[in-house]
Amino acid sequence: MSVDTAAGVGLAALLLVCAVVVVHVRVRRGVPLGLGVGGGAVRELGAGLAIGSAAMTALAATLLVTGLADGGRVGFDPGRLGLGLVVLGGAAVVEEVVYRSVLLTGLSVLTRRPVLALVASAAVFGAVHLAGSPDATLVSGLSNAMGGLMYGVAFLRTGRIWMPVGIHFTWNFVQGTIFGFTVSGETAYSGAFLHPTVSGAGWLTGGAYGPEGSVLSLVARAAIIIMVLLATRRGRRLGKGREGPRPAMTPARGPLRAIVSRRPPSAG
């Protein structure tokens, strides 16, 4: 068995275990899975869309203004725009259900340590992206792992997938479909408006992997985590629905305590 095959089997087994755990705690204990659409879900989604758009626009603008990329050919491709909306939107929902609602929730229940589960699920998320593209680099792997952190923080803070879905979708959609950059080594959904070219060292521009393979993306992702924490800080939460974080997610100790929402659990 090759290393890639073994890794794939290991990931599938981990997801299966977490799925079983998630279904068990949902059925037996009424633990919410973060899929509720009532209450503040729309506000959380809107906040995620705004946060992701702002961060990726800033990253793309930095590349263009500094000359690390040029705007290239300008034109409107409605087919590419529609494809990006549908595929990247669907992918954001599916990945957040798999990696946050199933994997992060399952690991949180198993370990009873949400911060440990957050870090572990982010590492898995980064590793999957690192293995999934021939253009991936150590920098892109680190960036994707940070992506797992920022989506996970949004999930833990709101108790639902909708803020991370919004961030995830706009991170990819603005990067590729709007600004025309490569997204995780893929160009099929890029270039509805712009067709830029990049120049310079790959660690600075992201190279063939796209801007999220750049060290600049680490700054953008850190900014997103800060924005999520600010948007969900105590007393100013965007979501006011009945669904809260799962009972197994006890607050973390020390400075990481702020990552975990303190709202009381309820079914949803």
Question: Can you characterise this structure?
Answer:
The chain is mainly alpha-helical and 268 residues long. It has one domain (3-259). Helix content is 61%, strand content 4%. It is built from 8 helices and 2 strands. The chain has helices at 3-29, 41-65, 78-111, 114-132, 138-158, 162-178, 202-205, 215-231; strands at 69-74, 194-198. It has a two-stranded antiparallel sheet. Helix 2 (41-65) packs antiparallel against helix 8 (215-231) and helix 3 (78-111) crosses helix 5. Residues 235-268 have low confidence and may be disordered.
Walk me through the topology.
Blueprint (H helix, E strand, L loop, with lengths): L2 H27 L11 H25 L3 E6 L3 H34 L2 H19 L5 H21 L3 H17 L15 E5 L3 H4 L9 H17 L37
Antiparallel strand pairs: 1-2
Helix pairs in contact: 1-3, 2-6, 2-8, 3-4, 3-5, 3-6, 4-5, 5-6, 5-8
